[in-house]
Specification:
Number of helices: 2
Strand content: 35-45%
Oligomer: single chain
Structural class: alpha+beta
Shape: elongated
Helix content: 10-25%
Distance between the termini: 59 Å
Length: about 100
C-alpha cells in the first residue's frame, strides 16, 4: 500500500502542467488604442531548461512576433509560458496583436 501512494505521488508530481499568460504593458512598450484588432503574431520557444545551458539562441522577441503576424500597429503584447513535467519542458511565447 505504501508503494502505491509513493508511486501515485510521484506520477502526480511529475505530470503537472502549468501555464500562465500576462500582459507586457508595464514594460514601456509603445502601443496604440485601435478600434479593431485584426492580426496576431507569435514567437515561441520550446526548450528543456536542463539543457538550456548548452543552447541559448532563442528568439521570442516582440519584433519576431510582430513580423510573424505582419503587424504594423501594435495594440497588445502578451507573454505566455507553459511548463510540462515540472521544469523538464517549457514553451515560452510572446504574442503581439494589432493591425
Amino acid at each position: 500500500m505504501k508503494k502505491f501512494f509513493i508511486i501515485a505521488s510521484l506520477v502526480l508530481a511529475l505530470s503537472s502542467c502549468h501555464s500562465y499568460r500576462t500582459s507586457l504593458s508595464k514594460h514601456h512598450i509603445t502601443t496604440e488604442k485601435l478600434p479593431e484588432i485584426n492580426k496576431e503574431g507569435k514567437a515561441c520557444n520550446n526548450y528543456f531548461p536542463i539543457l538550456s545551458l548548452l543552447a541559448q539562441n532563442y528568439d521570442d522577441s516582440i519584433e519576431t512576433a510582430r513580423k510573424d503576424g505582419d503587424i504594423h500597429q501594435i495594440a497588445i503584447v502578451e507573454k505566455q509560458v507553459s511548463r510540462f513535467l515540472g521544469i523538464l519542458f517549457v514553451r515560452d511565447c510572446t504574442i503581439v496583436k494589432g493591425n
